[in-house]
UniProtKB/TrEMBL annotation:
<dbReference type="InterPro" id="IPR002205">
    <property type="entry name" value="Topo_IIA_dom_A"/>
</dbReference>
<comment type="similarity">
    <text>Belongs to the type II topoisomerase GyrA/ParC subunit family.</text>
</comment>
<feature type="domain" description="Topo IIA-type catalytic">
    <location>
        <begin position="39"/>
        <end position="510"/>
    </location>
</feature>
<dbReference type="InterPro" id="IPR050220">
    <property type="entry name" value="Type_II_DNA_Topoisomerases"/>
</dbReference>
<protein>
    <recommendedName>
        <fullName>DNA topoisomerase (ATP-hydrolyzing)</fullName>
        <ecNumber>5.6.2.2</ecNumber>
    </recommendedName>
</protein>
<dbReference type="GO" id="GO:0005524">
    <property type="term" value="F:ATP binding"/>
</dbReference>
<dbReference type="Pfam" id="PF00521">
    <property type="entry name" value="DNA_topoisoIV"/>
</dbReference>
<dbReference type="GO" id="GO:0005737">
    <property type="term" value="C:cytoplasm"/>
</dbReference>
<keyword id="KW-0238">DNA-binding</keyword>
<dbReference type="Pfam" id="PF03989">
    <property type="entry name" value="DNA_gyraseA_C"/>
</dbReference>
<dbReference type="GO" id="GO:0034335">
    <property type="term" value="F:DNA negative supercoiling activity"/>
</dbReference>
<feature type="region of interest" description="Disordered">
    <location>
        <begin position="537"/>
        <end position="568"/>
    </location>
</feature>
<feature type="compositionally biased region" description="Basic and acidic residues">
    <location>
        <begin position="546"/>
        <end position="555"/>
    </location>
</feature>
<feature type="active site" description="O-(5'-phospho-DNA)-tyrosine intermediate">
    <location>
        <position position="127"/>
    </location>
</feature>
<dbReference type="GO" id="GO:0006265">
    <property type="term" value="P:DNA topological change"/>
</dbReference>
<dbReference type="InterPro" id="IPR006691">
    <property type="entry name" value="GyrA/parC_rep"/>
</dbReference>
<dbReference type="InterPro" id="IPR013760">
    <property type="entry name" value="Topo_IIA-like_dom_sf"/>
</dbReference>
Length: 847
């Protein structure tokens, strides 16, 4: 094929394999994004667009003492000279450098609307004005030139632009940076200037300074919006490894407010600071939605009273509401507390590197030392050149009469230049300076000024030589420079760091309040469509008593039948697992308490947004009681992958949840079971096979939460897992139900005890070829199961009405006669709530 290619007028056509060309092109694109757009340089802390904006403004003369200039003019210069991309992208970058809630030390000053913490958009660039801020002008652009940093050609070779700015402060740490490249991302938090300077000076004095001492000098990020860091562990992880999760919380206080005229005063939570990058308007809307949906209780009103003086969001509480309880719910369910995921990734020598705090500081110090050496060498060269000229002028003035005589008798300038060089042993440059010297320099005052300049130049040259020849002196000058910048631009820390003692005291106080005011026995009811309803025990018992007059064993149509009922306490946690293998927890008290007529709320709506909004995304759930936490959790997927993990690993999960099991494409988490060591498991397939094996480290070892797990048993084609049952005693029975409505209770002793991964035993014989097993469940004699058909008919059937049969006995018992095409879809074991003798009185209100 290559032989048939013709020679085109544009040159030789070279055949290239498609995969080679795609690989090369994508790699070039990725490196262009990484180096040229998304990641900052560790030396000046800037991405190319920010560097080009600052340099273009420097060229325009927009210093802090000059008038503001329209942003459109700046954007035009940046686009035309250095950054040929979209104007909106350049303007967005410029706006962020102006916003004092985005940058800890804004690099630009602005006039006009540059947006707000409510995520309001900035005005168009033709309306806003800007100029360089003092901190950027002095710490980033001072002494910029080809002698200090390297310059390269711009995109059309018509201009020169700096590769890096001669930064005198580590801007990467001061203002932080965020960006998403190809296959990597960076998210560096901002820091306090004074603390960073103290850390730099300490590293200059003691390069082997311990991490503990360095972390004392730089204890954590300092966000422009303030807030409070509540756990230093994430900070130290980020500082040591370059990656960590930093929990940040807003600042609140309690006040007594008067809601309206003639109304009693109420306690209110006043929010004065939000975590970094949290949209205030969006946060208020989220809180309002939680209150309206019943997920956040105790709040009477919320309003924004922020003004030019600062932020003030008032959350009025209902009477007799504990503020600590509401605050705890706000921390858990909203961004009043959230984790800042620090990824300290930057370009070092053109290569992306995940760096620790020490490495970033050392990289800046090395760069600053190199910059100072280049600057001092350039200054030394200029000083020596000027000193050479001044020395020649002084020598000529000392021999003024002879000088005048040579000039009077010289026929032309060239002859005069040669004669001066021979007479006074001067260089060509010195002779040119003497010949260009005006007559006023012959006065006594001018001669004295030349001598003074000569002395100053000599002293300056000696100082520069001392700095260049002695590294200790150079480092002293660097420390002096840092202290001067700290004195000029340093300020107080805005973000508070909570101590370990304060955090422990807060946890203990909240635990006491929750134990005193929140603990209440309730009943949770879970429906087929994914709704959950919370009722008091008495209200549930009354509702059950009203339903006893109808025969619940008969299949009747029901729009959304209750599949499972669990007794719980409002202080306990509910573990929810989704079909994609994610785990989330929420306190039972967070589930809204509903009335008799209400069907409840979708359980998925109570989970974070990361859980999705589809009710069918929920695979299963479990109340984390103290007794349950002593067990292990067995996770079983639809395609038979099984793993065992400690249930205690799923306590107190963050809002983001965690991955409980990794799944292959096409698989999903389907079943969970609590077990203890040396117990047994029985797993059934849709083909009626049953495998039974002991729970031990050989069959089913405890695994990490991100593991996939081994295969529980071998599945035939078109076969899937339908359930998993915990076996505690050898005489236990398991309940098996088919899609056609056949059921039996099988004594587990009739099933061979084998090993995990086997083929199992045929335990259910089908009367119809199209029938298949849909469920396996424990078989308590005093229990009942809830059965739902494909036509949304539902019945509660006592388990003791189903006969016991062996594995070889044909299954003849049928739950009911079904209509043509009607099949059983769901079978769940209904956990009954004990009906105590003390029933509610007639005047109890049903909640």
């Amino acid at each position: 094929m290559a032989d048939q290619l013709n020679i085109l007028s544009s040159g030789q056509v070279v055949p290239t394999p498609l995969h080679t060309e795609v690989q090369r092109s994508y790699l070039e694109y990725a490196m262009s994004v990484i180096v040229g757009r998304a990641l900052p340089d560790v030396r000046d802390g800037l991405k190319p667009v920010h560097r080009r904006i600052l340099y273009a403004m420097y060229e325009l003369g927009l210093s802090p003492d000059r008038p503001f200039r329209k942003c459109a003019r700046v954007v035009g210069d940046v686009l035309g000279k250095y950054h040929p991309h979209g104007d909106q992208a350049v303007y967005d970058a410029l706006v962020r450098m102006v916003q004092d809630f985005s940058s800890r030390y804004p690099l630009l000053a602005g006039h006009g609307n540059f947006g707000s913490v409510d995520n309001d958009p900035p005005a168009a660039m033709r309306y806003t004005e800007t100029r360089l801020a003092a901190v950027s002008f002095e710490s980033l652009l001072d002494n910029i030139g080809e002698a200090t940093v390297d310059f390269i050609d711009n995109f059309d070779n018509s201009q020169q632009e700096p590769i890096v700015l001669p930064a005198q402060l580590p801007n990467l740490l001061l203002n932080g940076s965020s960006g998403i490249a190809v296959g990597m991302a960076t998210n560096i938090p901002p820091h306090n200037l004074g603390e960073v300077v103290d850390g730099l000076i300490a590293l200059i004095d003691r390069p082997t300074l311990s991490d503990e001492r360095l972390f004392e000098l730089i204890p954590g990020p300092d966000f422009p919006t303030g807030g409070e860091i509540i756990d230093a562990k994430g900070v130290q992880d980020a500082y040591r490894t370059g990656r960590g999760s930093i929990p940040v919380r807003g600042i609140t206080q309690l006040e007594e407010v008067r809601p309206g005229r003639g109304r009693q005063r109420r306690t209110a939570i006043i929010v004065t600071e939000l975590p970094y990058q949290v949209n205030k308007a969006g946060w208020i809307e989220k809180v309002a939605d939680l209150v309206n949906n019943g997920r956040l209780e105790g709040i009477a009103d919320i309003r924004d009273e922020s003004d030019r003086e600062g932020m003030r969001v008032v959350i009025e509480l209902k009477r007799e509401t504990q503020p600590e309880v509401v605050l705890s719910a706000l921390y858990r369910q909203t961004q009043l507390q959230h984790n800042f995921g620090a990824i300290m990734l930057a370009l070092d020598n053109g290569q992306p590197q995940q760096m620790s705090l020490r490495e970033m500081l050392n990289a800046f110090l090395n760069f600053r030392e190199q910059t100072l050496v280049r600057q001092y060498r350039y200054d030394l060269e200029k000083t020596e050149n000027r000193l050479h000229i001044v020395e020649g002028l002084i020598r000529a003035l000392e021999n003024l009469d002879q000088l005048i005589d040579i000039l009077r008798h010289a026929p032309d300038g060239t002859t005069a230049k040669v004669s001066l060089g021979e007479a006074f042993e001067l260089s060509d440059r010195q002779c040119d300076a003497i010949l260009a010297m005006p007559l006023r320099r012959l006065t006594g005052l001018e001669r004295q000024n030349l001598q003074t300049e000569y002395d100053e130049l000599t002293a300056h040259r000696d100082e520069l030589l001392r700095l260049l020849n002695d590294r200790n002196e150079l480092l002293k000058a660097l420390k002096k420079e840092l202290r001067s910048l700290k004195k000029k631009f340093g300020d107080e820390r805005r973000t508070r760091i909570q101590s370990e003692a304060e955090r422990q005291e807060e946890t203990e106080q909240l635990a006491e309040i929750l134990a005193e005011h929140k603990e209440e026995d309730v009943v949770l009811e879970f429906s087929q469509k994914g709704y959950v309803r919370r009722s008091t025990t008495r209200a549930y018992q009354r509702r059950q008593a009203r339903q006893n007059d109808r025969d619940r064993q008969e299949f009747q149509e029901e729009e959304d039948p209750t599949l499972q009922t669990e007794a719980a306490n409002t202080a306990e946690e509910l573990l929810v697992l989704t079909r994609d293998g994610k785990a989330f927890t929420l306190t039972v008290g967070e589930i809204p308490q509903t009335s008799r007529q209400s069907k409840g709320v979708p359980l998925v709506n109570l989970l974070p947004n990361s859980a999705g909004s589809d009710p069918e995304a929920i695979a299963t759930h479990l109340v984390l009681t103290e007794a349950a936490l002593t067990h292990d959790l067995v996770l079983l997927t639809r395609l038979g992958k099984i793993k065992r993990v400690p249930l205690s690993d799923f306590q107190n999960l963050t809002g983001r949840g965690l991955t409980a099991v990794k799944l292959k494409k096409g698989d999903e988490l389907a079943f969970i079971t609590l077990v203890q060591a040396d117990e047994e498991l029985a797993i059934a397939t849709s083909g009626g096979r049953l495998i039974r094996f002991a729970v031990n480290d050989e069959n089913l070892p405890v695994m990490g939460r991100t593991a996939q797990g081994p295969q529980a048993l071998r599945l035939r084609k078109q076969e899937s897992i339908v359930g998993c049952v915990r076996i505690q005693q050898a005489d236990d029975c398991v309940l098996m139900v088919s899609a056609a409505g056949f059921a039996k209770r099988l004594p587990i002793g009739g099933i061979h005890l084998g090993a995990r991964g086997g083929i199992g035993t045929q335990a259910f014989l089908f009367k119809q070829k199209t029938d298949h097993l849909v469920a396996i469940a424990p078989s308590p004699l005093n229990g009942e199961m809830t059965v739902v058909t494909s036509q949304t008919r539902c019945a509660q059937i006592p388990i003791d009405t189903i006969p016991r049969q062996g594995r070889d006995t044909p299954t003849n018992y049928r739950l009911s006669k079904f209509a043509k095409g009607e099949r059983i879809e769901t079978v769940t074991l209904t956990a009954l709530v004990d009906n105590e003798t003390n029933t509610a009185s007639d005047d109890d209100s049903e909640e």
